[in-house]
Amino acid sequence: MSLALASQLREGTKKAHTMAENTGFVSCFLKGVVDKSTYRKLLADLYFVYRAMEEEIGRLALDGHPVVSRISYPELNRRESLEQDLTFYFGADWLKSLEPTSSAKAYVERIRQVAKNSPELLVGHHYTRYIGDLSGGQILKNIAQKAMNLPEQDGLRFYEFDSIDDEKGFKKQYSATLDSLPINQTTADLIVEEANQAFKWNMEIFKELEGNLIAAIGKVLFGFLTRRKRKGSTEKT
């Protein structure tokens, strides 16, 4: 009998999903307030997260792990796309100069820990990140492109899933895969719990980046007010 894990994950993470969307960073992003410096720091953090996840899932899939091997969809992988984006923003030697934020480091440590001790819980992280990216990718891409005045793809390849022609069909297939995983209800509950924790790790990254975004907005506002003040001082009375 199917445990309907896909439905359990969807329903069980609704609250966490809403909380993540309501963080200051994401709220600003969705409203088109995107600072390039902060945005590229987000991509750097995501690179370290996806590198860890894809290394661990790839290793476990090669070892034939009965659960993890089934969610190892190469067409979802984001590491290469992020490498292209980071090269665009930071230049060819970007990896030498970038370090993850403390929140991203903690997220990566959790992924490594889960992969070592309870690999099946990686399903929660996989679902939270990849399906979220696939579902909202084009919307976020359009917002970022307009806000930062970027070309069609440069700096935005993270949102492109070139190997997936039918997003709706793929998500249907992914849900069927989740429902067919060889797990019991106890493990399903733990996966849902881990997915909620994955949202928490993502929110911690967003919150750490909020300080940079607020500072950038403040700088722009200060510059605007200064220019306005100077302009006013030159007007004849």
Description of the structure:
The protein is mostly helical and 237 residues long. The chain has one domain (5-209): Heme Oxygenase, Chain A, CATH 1.20.910.10. Helix content is 73%, strand content 0%. It is built from 10 helices and no strands. α1 (5-12) runs parallel beside α10 and α8 (122-148) packs parallel to α10. The longest helix is centred in the last third of the chain and has 50 residues, at 185-234. It is globular, with a radius of gyration of 20 Å. The protein starts with a helix and ends with a helix. The model is unreliable at 215-229 (pLDDT under 50).
> Number of helical segments?
10
Strand content: under 5%
Tell me roughly what share of residues is in helical segments.
over 70%
CATH class, named Mainly Alpha
Major sheet summary line? none
Query: What is the CATH topology?
Result: Heme Oxygenase, Chain A
Mean pLDDT: 89
CA gyration radius, whole angstroms: 20 Å
Please count the beta strands (DSSP E, at least 2 residues each): 0
User: SSE order in H/E notation?
Assistant: HHHHHHHHHH
Shape: globular
Q: What structural class do helix, strand and pairing data support?
A: mainly alpha
Distance between the termini: 82 Å
Write out the CATH superfamily name.
Answer: Heme oxygenase-like
Low-confidence stretches: 215-229
- CATH A-level architecture: Up-down Bundle
The number of distinct structural domains comes to 1
